[in-house]
Amino acid sequence: MKLTRRHTLMMAFGSAVAAIMPFKAFAAVEDEIQAFTGGADMGSDGITLIAPEIAENGNTVPIEVNAPGAEAIIVFAAGNPTPAVATFNFGPLAADQSAATRIRLAGTQDVVAIARMSDGSFVQARQEVKVTIGGCGG
Amino acid sequence: MKTVFKGGVTAVALFAAYAVQADQEANLVINEDIEITVRTDAPEHLENLSTIYSGWVFRSSETQALQMDDFENPGMIFVDDAIDSWNTVEGSAGESCASCHGAPEELAGVRAVYPKWNDEAEEVRTIAMQVNDCRTSQMGAEEWKYDGGDMINMEALIASVSRGMTVNVATDGPAQSMWEKGRDIYYTRFGQLDLSCANCHEDNYDNNIRADHLSQGQVNGFPTYRLKNAKLNGVHSRFRGCIRDTRAETYGVGTEEFIALELYVASRGNGLSVEGPSVRN
Amino acid sequence: MADNVKPRVRVPRDATAGEEITIKTLISHPMESGQRKDGDGNVIPRSIINRFTCTFNGETVIDVTLEPAISTNPYFEFQAIVPETGTFEFTWYDDDGAVYTDSKEITVG
User: Fold this and answer.
1) What is the rounded CA–CA span in Å between residue B42 and residue B167?
2) What is the three-class DSSP state of B59?
3) Which DSSP letter does residue B142 get?
4) Mean pLDDT of B154-182
5) Phi and psi at residue A126, in whole multiples of 5°?
6) Burial zone of C93 (CB within 10 Å; 0-12 exposed, 13-18 middle, 19+ buried)
7) Could you tell me how many CB contacts below 8 A there are between chain A and chain B?
8) What are phi and psi of B280, to 5 degrees?
């Protein structure tokens, strides 16, 4: 990519804006994540989050989480007014540690799933879901 | 019937090719049991289309999946509500729907041929009109609001027992003049945006209008559970929404114009299967 | 109690001992998030189902905490082990104190 002066200026401006803008939104979810994990480091193996790349409609978005051996899985929508979505606590008669549900997403954002494993460790999966608004849907 | 693009530049700019997500080759089988025809040759009276498609094929694969199992389809909880209503005695005659009609399954085939001409009443009737006639004349009960929850749920029940059956509404005989009236409305431009049903649903189905992936505007899947408002929606409500989106004053629910339009639009789906309650955007 | 709240649950009618089955649950409920405003601009207060549990012969299968981001007409699908003949109990707890329940029997033979 040719780095014209215009490009460089735009990139600098863009990254400055990016540095400021999502900060508020993501701060909320980071706090809630900390509350769940107690600040522990999170791995990324052993948990699957299935969500559409583009949501047909932000009001009803199907998702699935799966973390074999987990005690609980918590789901956040990082860009929603309140990020917490649900916590799945698995009992002794759960055949596996998976669950599917439908959630509301206020706009394009990351959906985050974090599992607390039986050994006290945490693993997370994150996926961006695009939510489009506008059209003639009536 | 040809449509001429007046103000054509603006209209064309609204439509963009759709690139993502919908699996348009997929087939719909509900509960691994009911086969639904979602694409077929257009009926003869449709001059401008060679193939007709159910709205199902235009939705994302996640949305399509919601309709494939009656325990995943949120519209089915409302069918359950209607079954309760079906069995409830109401009105001065002390009857329920079940008293005359037996089980809801006895009405299999009804949804597939409505709206239709009623000889005694000498008018074209939609299912809602027929339900209200039954309620007032046979049950001595009050009419339900045309697009209220009770009526829409009952329409969903009546549709659900016809799933898989081929839509086949009559366009000739006594219904013909209403059908022609509906056809004329379909091709009439409305509103500040000067759009007819055909501009989007015949000329531009499969394209995007801003963020919406356009279908052919078929009604074989109505009442439909819309993800957007998380409830069942009836045909006339949808017509209102569409016309309002052209920034026009819209006709009312249950008016003659909409009955005519419903008859015509239903006939554009002759050959597809009854699919309601469907799941759409 | 919210109006017209109706559960709809699918559990197979029978299973072999120790089999893993899929359970699908749906309940009609508006899940008023507390984010919407009425015509006069006043916030419509939050009123949701905040917890869902499934037990089998008294033992927990799953216990879900729901937040306002769960869609209207909450849906949950999960897997359960069926050790013996018995009854699945499903319970939904509403913010307003109402409790909705459903139960399904399953035969192991």
Assistant:
1) 12
2) coil
3) P
4) 97
5) -140, 140
6) middle
7) 54
8) -135, 180
Concatenate the DSSP letters of all residues of B221-237 into one string.
T-SEEETTTTEEE-HHH
Res B4 pLDDT > 50: no
**Which of residues B167 and A22 earns the better pLDDT score?**
B167
The two beta strands, A70-77 and A109-117, are antiparallel
Q: Which tokens go with C48?
A: 């949701």
C 77-96 residues inside an 8 A Cβ radius of B: 77
- With beta carbons under 8 A apart, name residues in chain B contacting A137: 212, 228, 241, 281
Burial class, B113, CB count within 10 angstroms (exposed 0-12 / middle 13-18 / buried 19+): middle
Search chain B and give the residue with CA nearest A101.
B72
**Are C26 and B231 an interchain contact pair (Cβ–Cβ within 8 Å)?**
no
For residue A64, what is the nearest residue in chain B, using CA coordinates? B62
Both structure tokens of A31:
């706090």
What residues form DSSP beta bridges with B95? B90
Cα distance between residue B123 and residue B135, in whole Å? 18
Ranges under pLDDT 50 in chain A: 14, 16-24
CA distance B129 to B263: 13
Contact partners, residue B280, CB within 8 Å, separation at least 6: B55, B56, B59, B63, B221, B224, B225, B226, B227
| DSSP letters for C35-63 | --B-TTSPBPPPB-EEEEEEEETTEEEEE
Nearest to B45 by CA among B1, B77, B78: B1
Q: Phi/psi class of residue A55: alpha, beta or left (left: φ > 0; alpha: ψ in -120 to 50)? A: beta
How many Cβ atoms are within 10 Å of C27's Cβ, its own excluded? 22
Model pLDDT for residues B20-75, shown as the tens digit of each residue: 456 778 899 999 999 999 999 999 999 999 999 999 999 999 999 999 999 999 99
CB-based contacts of A108, cutoff 8 Å, min separation 6: A79, A128, A129, A130, A131
Q: Which of B238, B111, B239, B213 has the alpha carbon at shortest distance from B168?
A: B111
DSSP class of residue C32 equals B
Structure confidence at residue C109 (pLDDT)? 84
C-alpha dist (Å) from residue C61 to A97, B5, C87: 10, 60, 12
